[in-house]
Amino acid sequence: MDTGAMVERARRVREAVATAAVEVTSADHEVTVVAGPNGVVRDLRLTSRAFRLTGAELGELVVRTIAAAHARMAVELRETLTDLVGERGPGVPDPLAPLPSPAAMRAEMDGPR
Questions:
Q1: Would you say 31 and 65 are in contact if contact means Cβ atoms under 8 Å apart?
Q2: Could you tell me which residues come within 8 angstroms of residue 66 by beta carbon, excluding any fewer than 6 positions away?
Q3: Residues of the chain whose pLDDT is less than 50?
């Protein structure tokens, strides 16, 4: 692949990640969440139905709806990136996998050589 094509592919990946968003609404339409990559909540909307819930019920519903949005965001972003850069081959790390902890990275670096 030539340098120009690599630069264009990188630009398209950056753009896809920057603009990625999914919207998820709870089953009874009390809560709507718009989520982006990396755990970002871009918008949270509550309808008047939400205020019929107790505080604990509403909190739980918000957390569940955010979790559902993040799960869908991960699937959609992985599909988009696969379309842009192709399938990962053996030994190629998942770009959406969580980063290892600093302690795990240190242990790996200090391990047998």
A1: yes
A2: 33, 35, 41, 44
A3: none
